[in-house]
Automatic annotation (TrEMBL):
Domain Pyridine nucleotide-disulphide oxidoreductase dimerisation: 357-466
A Pfam family recorded for this sequence: Pyr_redox_dim
One of the GO BP terms on file: 2-oxoglutarate metabolic process
Source organism (scientific name): Pelistega ratti
Gene3D superfamilies recorded: 3.30.390.30, FAD/NAD(P)-binding domain
Top-rank EC class of the record's enzyme: oxidoreductase
GO molecular function, one term: dihydrolipoyl dehydrogenase (NADH) activity
Name of the molecule in the record: Dihydrolipoyl dehydrogenase
InterPro entries (alphabetical): Class-I_Pyr_Nuc-Dis_Oxidored (IPR050151), FAD/NAD-bd_sf (IPR036188), FAD/NAD-binding_dom (IPR023753), FAD/NAD-linked_Rdtase_dimer_sf (IPR016156), Lipoamide_DH (IPR006258), Pyr_nuc-diS_OxRdtase (IPR001100), Pyr_nucl-diS_OxRdtase_dimer (IPR004099)
Length: 476
């Protein structure tokens, strides 16, 4: 006997659990299915983001930042400390506690919003006679659900190098990178993207020598060139060794080390020997076991669920959101899609503006941007004007002792509409929100320049960059 729901969501990551909650708020009878459990079989909703991604990595970044501050920067503030000792097990345990708090919080939200939560693997099991969809849940018990609407939110998995599977001991994905039992003497990272830079930063601060190898010919090509250049300078100064334009050879392992032969951009043959190797070369959509073929759900050649601009699949009342569909693999993008789909199911007009989804790298300095880069706009033939303001000239940044970086705002030369904003520096992840809001309302640089910003704050650098667009900064 199956249980009938208006909406069944497969996956309880940021896209899935948010979609389930919003659909329930709109009066739908909702179930959410997720297979993630701990070693004792306890549910761990939240997906990759909560369990082995956004949340635990930020916890480790915070802890490692404190460790580095205590070692190298407390003295600048007149704080003298004795010998500094790292208790890695405590640091990792704190990260695990933060993750559990988020897992528990999601389960509380399910109860609060009357979402029925099933712990197990969800998959399609054909169609019912009335046209609704059968969903099988395989957990401690096997259960059968039927749903008028199904939202696929199964997320993504780390991409492995060909012939080099993850063992989470020597060859690490983002999961293993979060729980290395002892600080490696030498750590290799393949890929200088978000995960590579963040995890490389964590373990460098904790004492590892970190070497990052990147196949792309330029560093951080997704970011504005000026931002990427400033970031590389900062990371070089910190001791992160980053080499771009490399070609990997055949990676081999011994009992104690991983050997990574590679060819440099200049054609030199080199070999890197490390204690552990993090592989962060992107992620692939996770549809394994979904049984999409049982209902004829269309996947593209790369394994993504095919959807239109409204997250509709090729089947009526079947939707897909988040990492399993096109677009950036970002938790906040998945959340926005989840809300929009729930609202469309309820007959409302869900909205996602893919042009104003911010990107953030939580290194030190933080890096954040929204909209287009200067290079993209010039390639499009847009006539633009640019304003920059350095944190070195910001009073709050000086007081914090963190003056690396700058704010860059790009506006249309004729209309002054903000087309892109790029920040590298302290709390860039928070500062970018003002610029997302301005762009969402198609605001101008002049609008930011005319808004009163509290003093002394880091946000004044945003105002000054907006003033710089019109060549009238006040503090530079």
């Amino acid at each position: 006997m199956s249980t009938q729901f208006d909406v069944v969501v497969i996956g309880a990551g940021p896209g899935g659990y948010i979609a389930a909650i919003r659909a329930a708020q709109l009066g739908k009878k909702v179930a959410c299915i997720d297979a993630w459990v701990d070693a004792k079989g306890n549910a761990k909703p939240g997906g990759t983001c909560t369990n082995v991604g956004c949340i635990p990595s930020k916890a480790l970044l915070q802890s490692s930042e404190h460790y580095e501050q205590a070692q190298h920067h407390f003295a600048d503030h007149g704080i003298e400390v004795g010998s500094i000792k790292l208790k890695l097990d405590t640091l990792i345990a704190r990260k695990d506690t933060v993750v559990k708090q988020n897992n528990d919080g999601i389960q509380y939200l399910f109860k609060k919003n009357k979402v029925t939560f099933y712990v197990g693997k969800g998959s399609f099991d054909g169609k019912a006679a009335d046209g609704s969809y059968k969903i099988k849940v395989e957990g401690k018990n096997t259960e059968e659900l039927t749903a008028t609407h199904v939202i696929v939110a199964t997320g993504s998995a780390p991409r492995a190098l060909p012939g080099l599977p993850f063992d989470e001991d020597k060859i690490l994905s983002n999961d293993g990178a979060l729980r290395i039992p002892s600080v490696p003497k030498k750590l290799g990272v393949i890929g200088a993207g978000v995960i590579g830079l963040e995890m490389g930063s964590v373990w460098r601060r904790l004492g590892a020598e970190v070497v990052i190898l990147e196949a792309a010919p330029t560093f951080l090509a997704v970011a504005d060139e000026a931002i990427a250049k400033e970031a590389k300078k900062a990371f070089d100064k910190q001791g992160l060794q980053i080499e771009v334009g490399v070609k990997l050879g055949e990676i081999t392992q011994t009992a104690k080390q991983v050997k990574v032969p590679y060819t440099t951009a200049k054609g030199e043959e080199k070999s890197l020997e490390v204690d552990r190797l993090i592989v962060s070369i992107g992620r692939v959509p996770y549809t394994e076991g979904l049984n999409a073929e049982s209902i004829g759900l269309k996947l593209n050649e790369r394994g993504f669920v095919e959807v239109d601009g409204d997250c509709k699949t090729n089947l009526p009342n079947v939707w897909a959101v988040g990492d399993v569909v096109r677009g950036p693999m970002l938790a906040h993008k998945a959340e926005e899609e989840g809300v929009a789909v729930a609202e469309r199911i309820a007959g409302k007009h869900g909205h996602v503006n893919f042009d104003t989804i911010p990107s953030v790298i939580y290194t030190s300095p933080e890096i954040a941007w929204v909209g287009k880069t200067e290079q993209q706009l010039k390639a499009e033939g847009r006539t633009i004007k640019v304003g920059n303001f350095p944190f070195m000239a910001n009073g709050r940044a000086r007081a914090l002792g963190d003056t690396t970086g700058f704010v860059k705002i790009i506006a249309d030369a004729q209309t002054d509409e903000v087309l892109g904003a790029h920040i590298i520096g302290p709390m860039a992840s928070e500062l970018i929100s003002e610029l997302v809001t301005i762009m969402e309302f198609k605001g101008a640089a002049e609008d930011i320049a005319r808004i009163c910003h509290a003093h002394p704050t880091l946000s004044e650098a945003v105002k000054e960059a907006a003033l710089a667009v019109d060549k009238r900064t006040l503090n530079l």
